[in-house]
Amino acid sequence: MPAATTAVTARQRTLETGHLFCFGLGYSALTLADRLLARGWRVSGTCRGTQKQQALKARGIDAYIFDRAHPVADLGAKLSGVTDLLASVPPDDAGDPVIDIHGAEIAQIRHLHWIGYLSTTGVYGDCDGAWVDETSALQPSGTRGLKRLKAEQAWAALPNPAHLFRLAGIYGPRSSALDTVREGRARRVVKAGQVFSRIHVADIASVLIASMARPNPGTAYNVCDDDPAPPADVITYACELLGVTPPPVMDYATADLSPMARSFYDDNKRVRNDRIKQELGFSLAFPDYRIGLRTLFDAGF
């Protein structure tokens, strides 16, 4: 399948100053926030609890409690000076909480330079190990993927369409196969031909910044590394770095897995990332899991 490309937009921005608002200041969004704070940007956004709210304020981030029971009061005023908006809140059983509660308000805002929505590669569904790109059919195989697809469609339907970022499996400091091994949770489950794509959280932040500098509203981007690989290989390499014996290989067909854990093996595909390279001029800092895990290990994570 040929790599997907889109024309590079002529409208480019300098990112010397700005104000980012994040619906959902989780792992990926907060990594981006820290990068922009270091550049002198203002960052605000939402979280789900008061303890997280206080921790974010200590980092210089204005944080507001948000969930379906707690809309952001007077959102229009809070977004009056915002230049860029990122949504990373996952869908719940009822749909996308941000769109459902605040979508109409966001649709009325005309001054935003950039809107981003963090989705997943799960929207492609099971492709039996074949390569997919941003032009491939969207056929999610489970309810989680279907909810993500519906959320994508809602964000793309805004008057100022969101940029859609389809993230592969995220890892990084304090959240990697190294931690799984150290905590005694590692399993080497083998399903013939099964591969997963991954992405380091630092590369996610870099892709988002590259898109903010070169906005192309409504465009979808696969955000993954260059090496779709079997999950057991990643655990084996993490054990090698840590100098421990890998756990025994478990056959997927007979492995004692929870329904949730088993569902992660339903989809099998190799995800192309040509568009982030060709349209955004992006170069991965961590093009495969070996470089990513080795860097984390050497840094003490």
What is the topology?
Layout: E1 19-23, H1 27-38, E2 42-47, H2 50-58, E3 62-65, H3 75-78, E4 84-87, H4 97-108, E5 114-120, E6 131-132, H5 143-156, E7 163-167, E8 169-171, H6 177-182, E9 188-190, E10 198-200, H7 201-213, E11 220-223, H8 231-242, E12 249-251, H9 259-263, E13 270-271, H10 274-278, H11 289-298
Parallel strand pairs: 1-2, 1-4, 2-3, 4-5, 5-7, 6-13, 7-11, 8-10, 9-12
Structural class: alpha/beta
Sheet with the most strands: spatial strand order: 3-2-1-4-5-7-11
Beta-strand content estimate: 15-25%
Q: Helical region count? A: 11
Short description:
The protein has 301 residues and is of the alpha/beta class.
What does this structure look like?
It is an enzyme of class 1 (oxidoreductase). This protein has 301 residues and is α/β, with parallel strands linked by helices. The chain has a domain at 19-171 and 199-226 and 269-285: NAD(P)-binding Rossmann-like Domain (Rossmann fold), CATH 3.40.50.720. Helix content is 34%, strand content 17%. It has helices at residues 27-38, 50-58, 75-78, 97-108, 143-156, 177-182, 201-213, 231-242, 259-263, 274-278, 289-298; strands spanning 19-23, 42-47, 62-65, 84-87, 114-120, 131-132, 163-167, 169-171, 188-190, 198-200, 220-223, 249-251, 270-271. α4 (97-108) links the parallel β4 (84-87) and β5. The longest helix is centred in the middle third of the chain and has 14 residues, at 143-156.
